[in-house]
Amino acid sequence: MRRSITARLVLMFAVVTLATFLLIGAALQGVLARELDRHQYEELDTTLTSLRYWIESIGTPERWARVQARMDALSPEDGSVRFWVLSDDPRFQYGKGLAEIDGLTRETDGRGSDILLPGQARPFRALSVHIAPLEQRPAVRLIVGRNSGPYERTRQTFLAAMLALGLSAVLVVAVAGYWIARLGLRPLERLSDEAQGLRPKTLSQRLQTDALPVELSALAEAFNGALARLEQAYAQLEAFNADVAHELRTPLANLIGGTQVALSRPRSTGELQEMLASNLEDLERLRSIVNDMLFLARADRGEAATGRVRTPLADEVRKTIEFFEFVLDEGGLQVRIEGDMAVQARLETALFRRAMSNLLQNAIEHSAAGAALTVALREEAHAVWIMVSNPGTPIAQAHLPLLFDRFYRVDAARRGHGEHHGHGLGLAIVQAVAAMHGGQVRASSVDGVNSFGFSVATDAPGPSH
Ligand SMILES: Nc1ncnc2c1ncn2[C@@H]1O[C@H](COP(=O)(O)OP(=O)(O)OP(=O)(O)O)[C@@H](O)[C@H]1O
Ligand SMILES: [Mg+2]
Of 133, 160, 130, 154, nearest to 143 (Cα)? Predict the structure, then answer.
């Protein structure tokens, strides 16, 4: 089940209220019980003291009858207060069930105690005192008892009232808490309404942050940041789509134009073969663009190089250069490998060669005849860098980081025609290969030497051999 902030707040409010009430209730209950006890014993003590003075002054059976009458008068009809006088002489006794009382109170002389009388639901609070003999009267023991039932009932009533109050307080707090939580969360609702109104067309909109409470403005700002990045990505995607369409248009126009011309009149087999060969060139160009784009899309999805094997980099570089032998000889170009010749890294060799080829191809395309190219291998913190350099026209600093973007070329006018047939995906693929190996890309143009390169992480996690 999804968690609700409102429900949790209400629950927490209710629990805290209940706990507070229980605490206060328990404390009050304790105070009440103590006060009631004190009150009971004070009353008992007053009665006991006044009777005691009286009995102390009586020494004959004739006067004892007046004591009995007095005690009768003091005993209420409901039996809630009772008196007992215990003695060895039956003429100086008072009360019912004396033998039992004697057993129950023998231990508790002078102190308060609870005694449970037969046939009573509640115990009696009792105080007792010894009175010295006088004339004919022997020593007697006076006991005053009071039914604790009414006090017990008071305590129970109080407990019930506390419970009822506590439960109603919890209810009130829960309802109020619900409203408070809803009120407090209202800005969140407004925020989500606002966010819901966003569409790709309105990506330039931002959430209003100044009217928001501080707790939410950080969230809204983070969301706005995400929106800004999304807007940028969206704009890039749109530009990319336009670029793709543009790149595909030229070969398609060539194909259609060439085919139309060929169909305009009857052709010989030789002419048709020539036309098909020219079509094939354009078709291959189309295929290479589509393949490159599919590769980049795979890299975009975060696909990493899986078949990585520990390989000496210098060997791989040398093998790639061999593929270009013919082109290099033709231009009278030299390639030198320098730096950490023994350095090794875990590579997916096919991907590595693809990136190397793109870099070499660019270097060859942008070098004058007879130039000297270099491939430098260098180990840096947790990465090996492969930099391909060639002497060439300086590239403006502003262009350098953008060259790795798809379809980006320094000279936009050269798009799609002239002696240069690139479609602007070569360096983007280098970047993708670097990313698949946990690496990065770099470009520099210093003192007439242009360098492009990428890195491969040396301690990247992955399947090892
Ligand atoms: N060695 C270099 N010297 C000067 N400029 C370069 C060099 N390498 C790349 N560039 C610039 O970077 C741009 C992008 O290169 P990239 O390899 O991505 O595309 P491309 O070579 O134009 O086409 P593709 O490689 O897809 O056939 C090139 O058009 C060029 O302007
Ligand atoms: Mg290229």
Answer: 130
Instruction: Indicate whether residue 427 lines ligand 1 (CB < 6 A).
Output: yes
Q: Mark residue 68 as left, alpha or beta (left: phi above 0; alpha: psi -120 to 50; beta: remaining).
A: alpha
Q: In a mutational test of the pocket of ligand 1, which residue from 240, 287, 364, 403 has the highest number of ligand atoms less than 8 Å from its CB?
A: 403
CB distance 368 to ligand 1 below 6 Å: no
Residue 113 has pLDDT above 60, yes or no: yes
Neighbours of ion ligand 2 (CB under 5 A): 362, 422, 426
Burial class from Cβ neighbours inside 10 Å (0-12, 13-18, 19+) for residue 85 reads buried
Q: Is the CB of 415 under 6 A from ligand 1?
A: no
Bridge partners, 145 (sequence order): 82, 126
Atom of ligand 1 nearest to the CA of 428: 18
What letters, b where the CB count within 10 A reaches 16 and e where it falls short, cover 168-198? Answer: eebeebeeebeeebeeebebeeebeeeeeeb
Contact 389, 373 (CB under 8 A): yes
Handedness of CA 207, 210, 211, 213 (dihedral sign): positive
Residue 53 identity (one-letter amino acid)? Y
Helices (H), 301-452: 313-323, 325-331, 349-365, 426-436
Q: Does the beta carbon of 363 sit less than 6 angstroms from any atom of ligand 1?
A: yes
**pLDDT confidence of residue 441:** 96
Rounded to whole angstroms, the Cα distance separating 162 from 144 reads 33
Distance CA 279, CA 256 (A): 9
Q: What pLDDT does 322 receive?
A: 96
Higher pLDDT among residues 210 and 393, named by residue:
393
Sign of the dihedral defined by the CA atoms of residues 229, 231, 235, 240, in that order: positive
Q: Is the pTM of this model over 0.70?
A: no
Residue 415 pLDDT class (50, 70, 90 cuts)? very low
Residue 409 Cβ contacting ligand 1 at under 6 Å: yes
Q: Which of the listed residues 362, 431, 447, 451 should we mutate to test ligand 1's pocket, taking the one with most ligand atoms within 8 A of CB?
A: 362
Residue 48 contacts by C-beta under 8 Å, 6 or more apart in sequence?
127, 129, 142, 144
Q: Which ligand is nearest to the CA of 289?
A: 1
Ligand 1 and 441: CB distance under 6 A: no
Contact 431, 454 (CB under 8 A): yes
The two beta strands, 140-147 and 81-86, are antiparallel
Determine whether the shortest distance from the Cβ of 366 to ligand 1 is under 6 A: yes
**Identity at 25, one-letter amino acid code:** G
Q: Ligand 2 centre from 448 Cα, in Å?
A: 19
